[in-house]
Amino acid sequence: MDFAIGGIAAAGASIFSNPFDVLKTRMQLQGELRARGHHTVYYKNVLHAAYVVAKTEGIRGLQRGLGTAMIMHTVRNSVRLGSYQWLSDRGFICDEKGKTIFYRSFLASAMTGAAGAFCGSPLFLIKTQLQSQAANTIAVGHQHGHAGLVHAVKRIYSQHGIQGLWRGADAVMLRAVAGSSAQISSFAKTKDFLREFEVFKHSTFLTAFAASIVGGVFQTLVIAPFDIVSIRLYNQATDAQGRGLLYKGIADCFIKIYKCEGIPGLYKGIGANYMRLAPHSALCLIFWDVLKDLQKKYLSNEIGTRHVL
User: Fold this and answer.
1) C-alpha distances in Å from residue 70, one per residue of 31, 75, 191, 266, 268
2) What is the Cα–Cα distance from 10 to 306, expressed in whole angstroms?
3) 174, 250 in Cβ contact below 8 A?
4) Which of 111, 135, 218, 300, by CA, is between 20 and 30 Å from 48?
5) How far apart are CA 275 and CA 283, in angstroms?
């Protein structure tokens, strides 16, 4: 049940965050390996990008890859949040008083985040390629031309096999280690802090909402460079052997972005990234906390009913 709760929470959150994910992906691919001022700027900022996409591709353009994104977040977070809760229930993360032990929470977040990222990597790959597909007048990055999730799976598998579907998994696992550990650890520690105040003691929703905002800030700052590297590796064109034509791997991607685009290049789309992560993290973690509370109440009522009988 812990795994199902994590997946349901993330799928619900992705409906609201997906438009920002589309905008983030487009902005991260804009001016790929080009110095500032030496490429066409289609997307000036988040609001301008939203206007351009909606005007050119319609509202549906802002929800490109939504179905794939929902499945991906379900898979990733079923593993990530479910495994984290499993460890928490067995006393690995908290002390005798129920307080979060930071280093244990950090390690658990990193490990479960990497596991979730590995399981969801093929879907992340396809989601990225679907979201980058745009009208010719505003297209950035390589255009893969997938008709949808099923078509993409068949196409990638027929060309490069299972290995092709997990291309770039190492980068997204590193991204997940950075992001998940920053998010869940800061979320858990912030909840502990807030519960010291009377206003937060009796409101799961308010406590989770406030803590998720803090978690989103930490996650965005930590994850940004790893996120753009993952997006670039996933979206690049490949040769007949499935090797990337622009980047050989994680280190090569970091170096080339830094050399060609500078430090700002590693933080492209950070505004859109926060606007995606903040609501997604908030909704995901709030849904997660609320669903866990409902599960506990249901189990308590069930045990009480059995005692009565």
Assistant:
1) 28, 9, 27, 26, 24
2) 33
3) yes
4) 218
5) 12
